[in-house]
Task: inverse folding
C-alpha cells in the first residue's frame, strides 16, 4: 500500500485543494468541498492499439454500422440507431422517466434476439420486474443485475456478451481501489473511465444514466460529458405528461435533435407529429397568440407563443419568459419601444411557449414581437398565419435558415399564409395555394399582420 493523504474535491466541478474552503474557486459554489483520501501508487494505464504514428491516408476508414432500437424517437435522437462500441450518457431530473424510457427501449431492442444487460444500482431485480410487467415487458433476452461494483459488472458482461449494457446510474457505481464514496468526483470519473475502456475494447454499446443538479446539469465532473460519445437530456415539466429527449453531443450523428414522448399509465408513447400536439388546444380568436416554426436538429416543429401585457402597479414592470431566453425577450421589448414606437414601459410582460417547449431559435423573434403587440392592442393575429424571422436591434427582419422545411411543415398543418423576411424569398418554391408576405422591418410586419 502506498502512502495516503487527504485532499478536498469540489463535488460540482472537480476542483482539488489541499485544504478545505467554503467556496470553490473553480465554480464559485458554496459548501461543495468534500474530503477524500488519496493513495499514492503506481497506476497502469491501458495502452492504445496504435503503437506509432500513421499517415492520414493510410488509416483504414471504418463505417459505423447502426442497430435500430425500435423506438423511433430514440433512434432519431441517436442519429438513426445505436452504434456498437458507443458510450452514451442520459441525464434528467429524478422521476422524469429515464429508467422507464431505457427499460422500454431495451425491450424493443431485445425482441430482435439481441442480449441486453440492465444493471441497476438503485433498484432490485424484483422492483425492475414489477415495473416491467406494468409496461408489458416480457423478454428472455433481457438480463437484470443489481450491482454497484464496476469490476463485477465488467466480468459478468464479458461472460454474457450482450449487445447493449445499461448502467442505472453512474452515480451509484464504485471501484474498490478508490477510497472515496460512490457519487464523488473521483468515483464517477474512474468508474466511467473503466466502463469506457470496456466498451471500446469489447465493442459493446453502453448507456449510462446520470443524475442532474439543481441547475439542470449532469452531476459529477464536467469531464464525464467529454468522455462519452453522446449526451442526451430527458426533460419535461412537472405538470405536463409530455417528455422531450434532446441531443447535446453526438459523435455519430447530428446534434440538437429532439424526440417527443407522452407519459401514460403503461409507459412512454412516441409522439410522431409534435406540431399537431403543440397546436391541439389553440384558441381560435385570442389576442397575444401566434405560431412560429422552429428547427430542432433536422426536424421542423410548429409551436404556439403566447404573450400577455397588463398595466403594472410597480415602478419597475415585470418581465417573465417561460421557455424562452429572458434576455432575448427583453431585447425584443426594447426594439418595439425604440423602433416601432410602442411604449411598453408601463406594462408587465409575460411570454410563454405552449406545451413546455424551450426555444433557442432566433427565427421565433418575429412571433414573440407580434404576440406582444397583439396583446397590447387586444387584436388577434389571423389564425392561419405563420411568423418566421429574426429581429435585429435596428428593427430589421433578418433571414433564417431552412425556410423550405419550415414552410412544408406549416403547409401540412393547414397554415395558409407565411410572413417571412424578404431575403428568404429567393429560390423558394411554396406548396399549394399558400400565400406569402415578405417584410423587411418590424414596423412593416406589424402593419401587415395587425393593420395600422
Result:
Amino acid at each position: 500500500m502506498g502512502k495516503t493523504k487527504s485532499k478536498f474535491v469540489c463535488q460540482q466541478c472537480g476542483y482539488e485543494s489541499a485544504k478545505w474552503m467554503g467556496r470553490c474557486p473553480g465554480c464559485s459554489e458554496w459548501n461543495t468541498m468534500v474530503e477524500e483520501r488519496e493513495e499514492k501508487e503506481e497506476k497502469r494505464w491501458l495502452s492504445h492499439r496504435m503503437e506509432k504514428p500513421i499517415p492520414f491516408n493510410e488509416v483504414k476508414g471504418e463505417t459505423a454500422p447502426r442497430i435500430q432500437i425500435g423506438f423511433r424517437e430514440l433512434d432519431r435522437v441517436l442519429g438513426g440507431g445505436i452504434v456498437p462500441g458507443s458510450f452514451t450518457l442520459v441525464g434528467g431530473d429524478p422521476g422524469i422517466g429515464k429508467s422507464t424510457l431505457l427499460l422500454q427501449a431495451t425491450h424493443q431492442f431485445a425482441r430482435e434476439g439481441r442480449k441486453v444487460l440492465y444493471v441497476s444500482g438503485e433498484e432490485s431485480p424484483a422492483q425492475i420486474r414489477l415495473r416491467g410487467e406494468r409496461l408489458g415487458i416480457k423478454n428472455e433476452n433481457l438480463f437484470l443485475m443489481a450491482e454497484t461494483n464496476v469490476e463485477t459488472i465488467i466480468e459478468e458482461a464479458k461472460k454474457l456478451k450482450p449487445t447493449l449494457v445499461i448502467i442505472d446510474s453512474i452515480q451509484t457505481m464504485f471501484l474498490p481501489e478508490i477510497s472515496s464514496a460512490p457519487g464523488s468526483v473521483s468515483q464517477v470519473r474512474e468508474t466511467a473511465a473503466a466502463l469506457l475502456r470496456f466498451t471500446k475494447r469489447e465493442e459493446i454499446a453502453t448507456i449510462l444514466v446520470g443524475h442532474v443538479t439543481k441547475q439542470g446539469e449532469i452531476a459529477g465532473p464536467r469531464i464525464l460529458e467529454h468522455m462519452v460519445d453522446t449526451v442526451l437530456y430527458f426533460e419535461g415539466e412537472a405538470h405536463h405528461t409530455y417528455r422531450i429527449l434532446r441531443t447535446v453531443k453526438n459523435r455519430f450523428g447530428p446534434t440538437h435533435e429532439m424526440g417527443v414522448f407522452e407519459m401514460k399509465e403503461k409507459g412512454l408513447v412516441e409522439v410522431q407529429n409534435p406540431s399537431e400536439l403543440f397546436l391541439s388546444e389553440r384558441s381560435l380568436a385570442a389576442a397575444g397568440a401566434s405560431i412560429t416554426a422552429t428547427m430542432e436538429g433536422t426536424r421542423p416543429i410548429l409551436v404556439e407563443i403566447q404573450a400577455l401585457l397588463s398595466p403594472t402597479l410597480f415602478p419597475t414592470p415585470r418581465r417573465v419568459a417561460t421557455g424562452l431566453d429572458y434576455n432575448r425577450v427583453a431585447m425584443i421589448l426594447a426594439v418595439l419601444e425604440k423602433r416601432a414606437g410602442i411604449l411598453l414601459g408601463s406594462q408587465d410582460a409575460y411570454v410563454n411557449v405552449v406545451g413546455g417547449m424551450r426555444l433557442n431559435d432566433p427565427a421565433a423573434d418575429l412571433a414573440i414581437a407580434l404576440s406582444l403587440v397583439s396583446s397590447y392592442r387586444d387584436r388577434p393575429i389571423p389564425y392561419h398565419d405563420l411568423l418566421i424571422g429574426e429581429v435585429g436591434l435596428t428593427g430589421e427582419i433578418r433571414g433564417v435558415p431552412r425556410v423550405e422545411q419550415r414552410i412544408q411543415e406549416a403547409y401540412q398543418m393547414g397554415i395558409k399564409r407565411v410572413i417571412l423576411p424578404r431575403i428568404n424569398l429567393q429560390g423558394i418554391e411554396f406548396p399549394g395555394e399558400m400565400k406569402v408576405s415578405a417584410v423587411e422591418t418590424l414596423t412593416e410586419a406589424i402593419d401587415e399582420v395587425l393593420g395600422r
